[in-house]
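This follows on from our talk about sequence and fold. Please put the record directly below this note.
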Amino acid sequence: MEQSSDTVTKAKIDPKDKVIQIARYFVHQNDKDKKGLSPLKLQKLLYFSIEHPEITDEMFGSLLPEEKEVLDMVWNVYGKYDGKYLEMLSHNEEPWQEARRGIETEVPSRNIISPDTMKSYYEQRLKEAQ
């Protein structure tokens, strides 16, 4: 157990468990909204969620209000699109392209997308949107 700054004790959660919580949240949203949720779409929704520090920083128990706020925003912006469209969006962005630099489009890759590249890319996009 760890003591947080607001003196509420929270159990640490494994990052893999957090991903499952987030995936379940999107499945629940889809059940309510009936927009369709393929494995590819779920993968891309998770991708668009992880650039937010509210999700990637210290991970505790069930979803925190600020995490839910980010997930609601991701769902509201991207939930209406199918997996192939979300794939096209993510593949046209700098973080994905940087990780694939020098690799043919049809060749699979396990290169890791840099969290620093994602952070700076999405911070810049946020500034441009404001």
Q: What stands out?
A: The beta strands are 2-3, 9-10. Confidence is low (pLDDT under 50) at residues 1-10, 56-61. Residues 2-92 form one domain. Residues 39 and 83 are 8 Å apart (CA to CA).
